[in-house]
């Protein structure tokens, strides 16, 4: 299912944000139009997809955000909003009014909230987040984006217990954006990051908190014992993949993911279905993998990659490495496609 960006404006300026460079090159005031939301809802419904995933920027900044949610729920879609939790009293009240009218079972997990370490967050942001989590905490799945090797996850134990958050923590890592300059975790440091994640598992396991990894982590960063511990307490969500996510912008452009937001950009109208979009970008991922097995030279001969247990790391890392090595792409056409 694609992510639908309602707006590219945001309330934060996070140092790790790998969407930042993409947003800086976009029309900041552009918001998804009603007719485009309806088109996307129709496209998803025809394809048998029953989930609307709203992103930004900060999606709650869209002037019609509460109405978009109400409309999607009325059409019996599950709505998942990726948010910072930092929103105005007016928006918070609007969301509350909508969700009070539907069965609580339909609200569970409706928000995926990226939470920054409170020790380094501005006090005003922390206060707004507190108000949101106090209101909707039991329906919020927490997330955290890693952009430095030295990071702390310990505060999540307190947050999950204090606000009753869903006991599943999503961990992402800042990746490079192809052909752009942004802050990210270097390929050589991903193993350090994975070991640090594994070090928090004993605490999470005691509190029954499962952990899932976003795209781009290589399996080889872990020892067998560390992998065993993480697998045991991840409830089947431990994957080392790199797959097209499908991000749809407010202008109805589509691309494979934010790290590849300048690659193979098309219009939604170029495709007849969501499935066709996915097949298009999966083919491109396969072409990249044919050029280089992964982010390390050893990936080419990796048994775990050959068995499909690991994708060899982030494709944006791979493309940047190929550029630096001045290798010619035999089959790849990675420029913007005609819109």
Question: Describe it for me?
Answer:
The chain has 339 residues and is an alpha/beta fold. It has one domain (3-324): TIM Barrel. It has helices at residues 20-24, 34-46, 65-74, 89-99, 123-136, 155-163, 190-199, 201-206, 224-232, 274-291, 303-306, 315-324; strands at residues 3-5, 51-55, 78-83, 111-114, 140-146, 168-173, 210-213, 247-248, 253-255, 266-267. The chain has a ten-stranded mixed sheet. Helix 3 packs parallel to helix 4. The longest helix has 18 residues, at 274-291. The model has no long low-confidence stretch (mean pLDDT 88).
List the helices and strands and how they pair.
Elements: E1 3-5, H1 20-24, H2 34-46, E2 51-55, H3 65-74, E3 78-83, H4 89-99, E4 111-114, H5 123-136, E5 140-146, H6 155-163, E6 168-173, H7 190-199, H8 201-206, E7 210-213, H9 224-232, E8 247-248, E9 253-255, E10 266-267, H10 274-291, H11 303-306, H12 315-324
Parallel strand pairs: 1-2, 1-8, 2-3, 3-4, 4-5, 5-6, 6-7
Antiparallel strand pairs: 8-9, 9-10
């Amino acid at each position: 299912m694609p992510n639908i960006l309602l707006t590219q404006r945001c309330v934060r300026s996070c140092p790790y944000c790998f969407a930042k460079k993409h947003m800086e090159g976009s029309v900041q005031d552009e918001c998804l139009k009603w007719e485009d939301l309806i088109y996307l809802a129709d496209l998803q419904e025809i394809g048998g997809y029953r989930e609307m995933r709203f992103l930004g920027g900060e999606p709650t900044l869209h002037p019609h955000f509460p109405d978009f949610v109400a409309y999607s729920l009325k059409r019996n879609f599950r709505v998942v909003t990726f948010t910072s939790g930092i929103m105005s009293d007016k928006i918070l009240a609007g969301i509350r009014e909508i969700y009070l009218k539907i069965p609580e079972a339909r609200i569970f997990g409706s928000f995926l909230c990226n939470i920054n370490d409170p020790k380094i967050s501005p006090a005003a942001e922390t206060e707004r987040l507190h108000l949101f989590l106090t209101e909707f905490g039991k329906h919020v799945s927490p997330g955290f984006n890693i952009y430095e090797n030295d990071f702390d996850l310990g505060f999540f134990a307190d947050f999950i217990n204090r606000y009753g958050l869903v006991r599943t923590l999503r961990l992402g890592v800042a990746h490079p954006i192809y052909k752009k300059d942004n802050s990210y975790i270097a390929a050589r440091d991903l193993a350090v990051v994975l070991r640090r994640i594994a070090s928090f598992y004993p605490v999470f396991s005691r509190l029954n908190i499962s952990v899932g990894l976003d795209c781009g982590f290589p399996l080889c960063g872990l020892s067998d014992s560390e992998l065993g511990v993480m697998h045991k307490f991840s409830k089947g969500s431990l994957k080392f993949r790199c797959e097209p996510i499908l991000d749809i912008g407010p202008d109805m452009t589509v691309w494979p993911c934010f790290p590849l937001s300048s690659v193979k950009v098309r219009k939604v109208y170029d495709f007849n279905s969501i499935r066709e979009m996915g097949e298009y970008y999966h083919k491109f991922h396969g072409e990249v993998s044919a050029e280089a097995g992964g982010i390390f030279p050893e990936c080419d001969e990796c048994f775990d990659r050959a068995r499909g247990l690991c994708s060899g790391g982030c494709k944006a890392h791979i493309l940047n490495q190929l550029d630096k090595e001045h290798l010619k792409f035999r089959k790849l056409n990675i420029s913007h496609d005609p819109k």
